[in-house]
Amino acid sequence: MQLRKMTLMIAALGLALTACPGGGREDLSCTADTDCSEDGTEICHPQAKVCVQTCTQGTDCPDSAKTCEAISSTNSQKICKCSTDALCQTDERVSDASTLSCDTTYRVCKSTGTTTPPGAACTGSGQSTCAYGQFCSGGTCTAAPEAAATCENFSQNRPNWSAASSNGPVIYSVTGTDYQVGSAYCQSDAPNAFIVRVRAYRTDADWPSTRAGLSGFFYVTTGSDKLDVVNRGLLVPNTGYNRTASNPKDAEFNVYLCRPSNAQTIQVGFYFTGGNPVCENINS
């Protein structure tokens, strides 16, 4: 009897030593807090979409992510943030921590290549639950547009953007909404206006509450001339900037572009600092 008890105790100890904390998860990806730990010590990061540990001070955090800080300037929830890939690879929540790296945008441990795959289901518009560089289109995560290498607008000084490593605002739609002959916005030498709607989301913080807080939004001509949309007054008066009430990280921008009276089409280029360059042909 004593031998049997000792054998059981040794077996239990072996299990305890080899068990993987957190249930041996393959990765940390999530879509909601309920996908993370059941004891309430983790939440699903609202942008990175990985489970992160909550904290009140640095001593609450593991070595893999030792800094206790607010998620962002607009989200005061404190989480454990990482600093290096090597430390992330000591994270005991996953069965193979060698797949982890420290995401430079959100400073969270994330499995290499962990993104919402294109074609994943989503709801609404803008980024929704899709990965950075994607947007929700017709209930499906879809890659955001990016200007082709042949686009004249970006033949010079093309913004260096990558869905894998960038973090600037993402333009996901550019459409023509109106063509005004003899527009009140324009002068006699270029009297007609193309009205173009640009939709974009950001992940680092909310869009500002008014257009006065906007910056880093550029219109690029086919001659590669770069114009600051806000400083040049290219937003339609009064209705040119609209932040989505239910999601302040999503917004639309209505831009007017004056052209001669014989203009039938215009090729536009737009981008935000750190974001994707987009070209589109707009017809009158």
- How does the major sheet shape up? 4 strands, antiparallel
| Cross-sheet strand order for the largest sheet | 9-10-14-13
Overall pLDDT level: 87
Unreliable sequence segments:
1-23
Molecular structure report:
With about 280 residues, this protein is mainly beta. The protein has helices at about 1-20, 85-90, and strands at about 40-45, 50-55, 65-70, 75-80, 100, 110, 135, 140-145, 170-180, 190-200, 215-220, 225-230, 240-245, 250-260, 265-270, 280-284. A hairpin with a 5-residue loop joins strand 11 (about 215-220) and strand 12. It has a four-stranded antiparallel β-sheet, with no helix packed on it. The protein has a four-stranded antiparallel β-sheet with strand order 12-11-15-16, with no helix packed on it. The chain is elongated, with a radius of gyration of 24 Å. The chain has three domains: about 1-110, no CATH class; about 120-145, no CATH class; about 145-284, Immunoglobulin-like (Sandwich), CATH 2.60.40. The chain is about 5% helix and about 30% strand. It contains two helices and 16 strands. Residues about 1-25 have low confidence and may be disordered.
What's this model, at a glance?
The chain has 284 residues and is mostly beta strands.
Topology diagram in text:
Blueprint: H1 2-18, E1 42-44, E2 51-53, E3 67-72, E4 75-81, H2 85-88, E5 100-102, E6 109-111, E7 134-137, E8 140-143, E9 170-180, E10 192-201, E11 217-220, E12 226-228, E13 241-243, E14 250-259, E15 265-272, E16 278-283
Antiparallel strand pairs: 1-2, 3-4, 5-6, 7-8, 9-10, 10-14, 11-12, 11-15, 13-14, 15-16
